[in-house]
Amino acid sequence: MQMRIVNAWNEWDELEEIVVGIADDAYFEPTEPGSCPALRDKHAAKIFPFPKGPKKQEVTEKANEELNGLVALLESHGVTVRRPEKHNFGTPVKTPLFEVENQYCAVCPRDVMITFGNEILEATMSRRARFFEYLPYRKLVYEYWNQDPYMIWNAAPKPTMHDLMYREEFWEWSLEKRFERMHDFEFCITQDEVIFDAADCSRFGHDIFVQESMTTNRAGIRWLKRHLEPRGFRVHDVHFPLDLFPSHIDCTFVPLAPGVVLTNPERPIKAGEEKLFIDNDWQFIEAPHPTSTDDEMPMFCQSSKWLAMNVLSISPKKVICEEQEHSLHELLDKHGFDVYPIPFRNVFEFGGSLHCATWDIRRRGTCKDYFPKLNYTPLAATTNSVSRFIM
Ligand code: ABU
Predict the structure, then answer these.
(1) What domains sit in the chain, N to C, each tagged with a CATH number?
(2) Ligand 1 centroid vs 385 CA: distance in angstroms?
(3) Chain centroid offset of residue 275 CA
(4) What's the pLDDT tens digit per position in 207-231?
(5) Is the CB of residue 356 below 6 angstroms from any atom belonging to ligand 1?
(6) Which residue in 44, 70, 214, 247 is a FRET match for 179, CA 20 to 30 A apart?
(7) CA–CA distance, 333 with 256 (Å, rounded to integer)
(8) 292-306 pLDDT, tens per residue?
């Protein structure tokens, strides 16, 4: 019997193998139509531009120390940890349709790569500097593909990333205008091409929830539906209208165990979308306020203070959290979770925290239905496609 290497159906089953990012050769994210990085301190931002070029050596080293600390903790729990290959993120990218001065980093595999059961899928990505971010993971993917005969490998269609794919004026909109338009779910990417980042998807067994955001559009979600539903998944779009700059679901809506989601009190799910969870006996636990305010986050960090809830579950009972988030530790402890705190704040300016910086390859367990009362006709049922899981 051949060993299954790639097998992960949800965000919480017992973890067996995972990829943890590396900070080597990271560059600052460039300004481009899909991203407008800014200094945290509004006063400094009036005087100094956002930096360009490579991250400083000592900053990269501190981030690597914390990433290595995560590796050590995971290994002490018997998890196999793999790392991406080094990549020269200083190489500019020029395609027939766009150019960008440099790339970004390989700290956040979660944004690019996702495991849906026995399938590894490479996301389209939404920003030019991240167009080739799958490359540091390709050697690993080939290894899994060569060693696991059941593993399926797909890459979603690459978007043009041409100027026409973006709504550049989005970056000029006032907060009032964004607030007025919060139910349009229109951001810096248009709806004409298939666009998604993997980190906008959250896996709950048969059910996959995908957030509409600055990094995932409606065409991206339609593509995921047509791709996944013939394999028996049910794909749901979800929205968090009060998040005026949504990007990646894992600081907003974080499942921890069957029946339990950690929710963001400042980003409630759109009215009506909670029903599916309530009808199926899911409990929402509101995350406490993070240790830092948005203004206190690291100067070059482009993520929100809600990185506080970007935790990594290593089993339905065990959660790795950032060490300074004491209120969150207490809350999770009260709900019966074992909390493993580790320092991770030096990773923040590289795009994320513990969930972002990882990509799970294998969790013990099979595909289950956590929404048994759901009345849903998958797209596959309306076509001739075979609707069955490869288990
Ligand atoms: N990459 C996750 C960032 C999400 C947030 O800023 O809330």
Answers:
(1) 15-389 (3.75.10.10)
(2) 36
(3) 24
(4) 999 999 999 999 999 999 999 999 9
(5) yes
(6) 44
(7) 13
(8) 999 899 999 999 999
